[in-house]
Design a protein that fits this description.
Blueprint lengths: L4 H16 L4 H15 L5 E7 L7 E7 L3 H22 L6 E7 L25 E3 L9 H13 L2 H6 L6 E7 L2 H9 L7 E7 L7 E3 L9 E2 L12 E7 L17 E6 L11 H20 L5 E7 L2 H8 L9 E8 L4 E9 L2 E6 L5
Parallel strand pairs: 3-4, 3-5, 5-6, 9-10, 9-11, 11-12
Antiparallel strand pairs: 1-2, 6-7, 8-10, 12-13, 13-14
Helix pairs in contact: 2-3, 6-8, 7-8
């Protein structure tokens, strides 16, 4: 799917200016001012002096001095200005960009991908925060649940990550979709600029920002003749990374599931642009709104084949007061079925046995 000419122009413009940036710009400017100021005494200052007397109405003379009070004042002003610029960039209080890596999958690299970051912002980054605990099998799910609920109780995002006037957050990582949704929900009351990064499956860098051109992605899915079952369960299946088929949906929900598909073939890194990500998360959240408004609905079940940033962005739109309970299911490809899930609420997550719906 090609992008529009206007999107190409905007992308090229943003890319050009990002390449023009250099690390620590104020340090560079401050150093330049200091060096220039120290060199000022070497240059003699020529001063024009205007004198008034009775013999000649106006007399103009030129004087040349090696050092003057004015040159000294300019040197001092330059030194102070340069030091102030450097201090403003390196002052710890100005570090207002947070970094988070979620790691809840086996063999995940626990180092934050620093190469993704804009070097012009380097002085403003806080230390990275790691969330989650790596696990290798379903027996570790309870450990992850306990850790997530502890992080929620400790209010870790507000107290340790986005505190003290944080203005931007870089976040990404690998975890099972139910936990990504849960971590995304912790961001629902934040108004900061969130930059998502994704696991790359192209064989290039391990991680990548969503900074490619915006493309024309649309999605289909309507709740025509779809309602909650007698138990109050209604479901939404999203096929962005891979196709979700009816035989994968638990038996009790097959006739009560809305299937959402993009206008292109599914792929692992389907969404490569931040605006496309926002639009996709918004579309899915609107469908969750519709499902929650049904009179008999008690729980909205989510079957999501999506990339990690989209799962986080969907979770960010969780609203307990507006939505019915969310149950996010995890797919086991070996057994070709959803075996467990998480029931999400403002007080945390708890396990859900997906096999009860078969």
């Amino acid at each position: 799917m090609k992008s529009s000419p206007w999107e190409k122009i905007k992308w090229l413009w943003r890319t050009f200016w990002s390449l023009k940036r250099t690390p620590y710009p104020r340090t560079r400017w401050g150093t330049g001012i200091i060096l220039t100021s120290l060199g000022a005494p070497i240059v003699n200052l020529g001063l024009m002096v205007i004198e008034l007397n009775f013999d000649i109405p106006i007399s103009i003379s030129y004087i040349d001095k090696e050092s003057t009070f004015l040159s000294g004042a300019l040197v001092l002003l330059g030194l102070l200005s340069g030091i102030a610029l450097i201090y403003s960039e390196w002052n710890n209080a100005s570090r207002n960009i947070a970094k988070v890596l979620i790691s809840s999958m086996p063999n995940t690299n626990l180092e934050f991908p620093e190469y993704l970051l804009d070097p012009a912002e380097k002085a403003f980054f806080r230390e990275p925060v790691m969330l989650g605990v790596p696990s290798s099998n379903n027996e570790d799910i309870q450990d992850q649940i306990n850790l997530y609920n502890a992080e929620l109780t400790a209010n870790i995002f507000n107290r340790l990550i986005i505190h003290d006037q944080c203005r931007k957050l870089y976040i990404g990582g690998l975890a099972r979709v139910p936990f990504l949704i849960a971590y995304g929900s912790l961001l629902r009351n934040t108004g900061i600029d969130i930059q998502y990064f994704d696991k790359s499956h192209t064989g290039q860098r391990e991680w990548t920002l969503l900074n490619e051109e915006k493309i024309n992605l649309t999605y289909n899915g309507k709740f025509d003749n779809i309602s909650a079952n007698e138990s109050g369960d209604i479901a939404i299946a999203v096929s962005f990374s891979s196709k979700i088929t009816e035989d994968q949906i638990p038996q009790k929900l097959i006739e009560h599931t809305l299937f959402i598909n993009p206008n292109v073939s599914p792929e692992r890194n389907l969404i490569k642009n931040q605006e496309n990500l926002t639009e996709a998360a918004h579309f899915i959240s609107l469908k969750i709104d519709e499902a929650s408004k049904q009179v008999n609905a008690k729980r909205v079940h989510l079957f999501l084949s999506v990339q990690a940033p989209l799962a986080l962005a969907i979770g960010q739109r969780f609203q307990e007061g507006m939505h019915k309970k969310w149950v996010i299911h995890n797919f086991n490809a070996e057994n070709w079925r959803y075996e467990w899930g998480l029931e999400l609420s403002a007080s945390g997550v708890r396990p859900f046995n997906s096999l009860e719906l078969t």
